[in-house]
Amino acid sequence: MKQYLLLFVLFVAMGNFLFCDGTTVESAKVINIISKITEGDTSKDIIFRQKVSIEIKSGFLKGRTEIIEVPVYKSIDQNIELKKGDSIVLQIINNEGIYTYKVLKLDTRWALGAVLIFLLIVITFVFDFKGIFVQLGAVAAAITSLFIYFPLICSGWNITVVTVMFLLINISVISILFIRHKFQRKILFFTSIFSIFLTYILWEITLKIFRMDGYITTESYYLGKISENIDLKELVISGNAIAAVASTFIGVMFMLHRLKPVIMKNSRDIQRIFVIAMREGEGFYKIYAIVSFLFMMGISSFEMFSFFIQNNKAHFIEIINSQYIIYVIMRYAINSLVVVAVIPFTAILCGKGAKRLSEDK
Q1: Distance CA 361, CA 358 (A)
Q2: What is the mean pLDDT of residues 218-233?
């Protein structure tokens, strides 16, 4: 347990070091709104300017008060109109001892913290203190995403290597937190490796058959322009490998939970365990096939609307042959194929695990 925790902390520290570019960013609070100046020329990107007094709340200038001018832009990401009492994320630029300031974002950490605490209270109330371990697993996944996965890729690391490392860390953490029996941990580990391997093969074939270049959405075009270090095709494969492992992980956990009493009672009847495992896997897939499609449509709604608005006058044959539509269809198809392939693989491993369990008895 200690070695896993140490490895986890090491990777978080490494990712955070690579992600940080040395820019000084601190928290601050708006003390007062002094004035608001409306721009006379409406064709400019700036709508108006605010003169505000702020107090820096962290860092080497903590406690210092300043009066700064904050432009409010038409663009969505920079149209922050400040109010008295707002917490803000402040960039501090040091030019030979002369400090200039730029408001980057509203600081909403307190709101996020309140939401997460409320979620933890609700889950603990419903599921007892076992819910805390569920949240610890979710927190571990979030931390490894924000401080390991994305920073390492943005720093130029190989996407495939980082993705496999990211998945193995999360699989290990979840297994330690939630699974007691070693043979169940082994089943989860081997099925995860199998799903990663199969997903990469299927997506490599898909990219070659449909001659996809990775420029699938508007975001991918933007990403391709601002970063030359990121292989978009490899990013497509790796992103879907994470989704496939998540889907199969849920399926395998579902099967193992349902099969546990069967294995304990019939550990010598390998054929019976295999048949029941296949039946449980079939039951899971019936639910997964519908829910996963709806989930995919939900999280892709902005992309879908953007695509169809841009192509509202396009012919059906143009739409169906666009890289984005091909990607959406193949994402669902490949994830489903991986889940279907993992079910008999899991059933075989359950049979072998039961056989070894009976020998140990």
Answers
A1: 5
A2: 74
